[in-house]
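Lecture 7, part 2: worked example. A protein chain together with zinc ion.
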Amino acid sequence: MTSGQTTTRRVEGEAGYLSPYPYLDKLQEKMEERLARRVPVKGRFCGFCYGRLRDADAVCGFCGSKLDAAGTVDEIPQPVLRLYKRKQQTEARWVYGLGFVGLIIASVLFILMAIWGPDIPAKIGVAFLLLIGGGYVLAQLFGTWIGGEIGYRRGARRRDAEWAAYMTERGTGSTPMRA
Ligand SMILES: [Zn+2]
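Predicted complex, written out as structure tokens:
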């Protein structure tokens, strides 16, 4: 299973979902660092997507907005941080939830093996090894792979819908200011 950081370097369109806002996937990892307070709260951020900028940037490296049109802010708005946090939590819930299902399946197999398995020497020992190895494999399979995919799709869909609503409320249009 993965650690607390749920964002992996995903390619667009992976997991059967293509975000209409590709810069959100690029920003997800940065926003998770900010949520974990591993980077300073204050800084120079794109006025359109709130990606962190270097002092010399004239164009945002995340959404491509021209900064003299989009403007800059010195802090990421809280409602924006929250929508990334919900995405992270949704994905983590699926990874750990389905990982747990994998462990339960391994435990059931262990019990079946111990009770009805072939009568071989050190039967319980073999069953234990299968429990540990099988538990690891099944937790990976169900949690990291299947849970990760479902969690990514659900979390990203919701995040993107919330971002669309945020942009509407903000009233600055929904396309990066590249012109
Ligand atoms: Zn931007």
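Strands lie at 45-46, 72-73. Residues 46, 48-49, 51, 60, 62-63, 65 surround zinc ion (CB under 6 Å). Keep this in mind for problem set question 3.
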